Amino acid sequence: MAPRDQARRLSAHHCEGKRVRLFTRNGYDWSHRYPLIVEAALRNRQSSFVIDGEAVLLGVYGRSDFNGLHSRQHDEEVQFYAFDMLVSDGEDIRNLPLTMRKSNLARLLARRVGGIFLSEFEQGEIGPDLFRHACLMGLEGLVSKRADSRYRGGRPPDWIKVKNRQHPALQRVMEAMS
């Protein structure tokens, strides 16, 4: 389980020497928008990897600033929170269980490089307590995944997304639906 907050979903791909590409969920290349993430990917010891995560602009108290992210006025400060790893040293690892992919991701990001961070995750039956604390912190919610799950694009059925009903992101969705 990983706490979620407002962000832009991206996949970071670093390969072919000094080339880094950041793709949105819809396939747009936003590498030019987020130089801090690109620089961090270039400083990594592996030359070919694909990681899945979210671009986040951290605001007051380390919370993400959704409006600031979308304003594009702070693109040079946007960081990447990595959730999953799809390719490691050029090898497709999507068929490995989540726990093994997370281990590979933790090794990749062991040398803390500013701009890309490992999104912390928890295992076990702590979901209700973790969700309660995420809500108290003002976060958007949680995403839970099965430890043995393989990677599939989109929103696979073995992911459970639980949203904080008091979070502004949910309020925006509700307003847009009415």
Describe the structure.
It is built from five helices and nine strands. Strands 2, 3, 4, 5, 6 and 7 form a six-stranded mixed sheet that branches. A three-stranded antiparallel sheet has the order 1-8-9, covered by helices on one side. The model is unreliable at 1-7 (pLDDT under 50). Helix content is 25%, strand content 28%. It is globular and about 45 Å long. It has a single domain (2-177), classed as DNA ligase/mRNA capping enzyme (D-amino Acid Aminotransferase, Chain A, domain 1, 2-Layer Sandwich), CATH 3.30.470.30. It is α+β, with helices and mostly antiparallel strands. The chain has helices spanning 35-42, 66-71, 98-108, 127-136, 168-177, and strands spanning 2-4, 8-15, 19-24, 49-56, 79-88, 91-92, 116-118, 141-145, 159-163.
List keywords for this structure.
D-amino Acid Aminotransferase, Chain A, domain 1; alpha+beta; 178 residues; three-stranded antiparallel sheet; disordered N terminus; 28% strand; 9 strands; six-stranded mixed sheet; 25% helix
Task: Detail the topology: elements first, then pairings.
Blueprint: E1 2-4, E2 8-15, E3 19-24, H1 35-42, E4 49-56, H2 66-71, E5 79-88, E6 91-92, H3 98-108, E7 116-118, H4 127-136, E8 141-145, E9 159-163, H5 168-177
Parallel strand pairs: 5-7
Antiparallel strand pairs: 1-8, 2-3, 2-4, 4-5, 5-6, 8-9
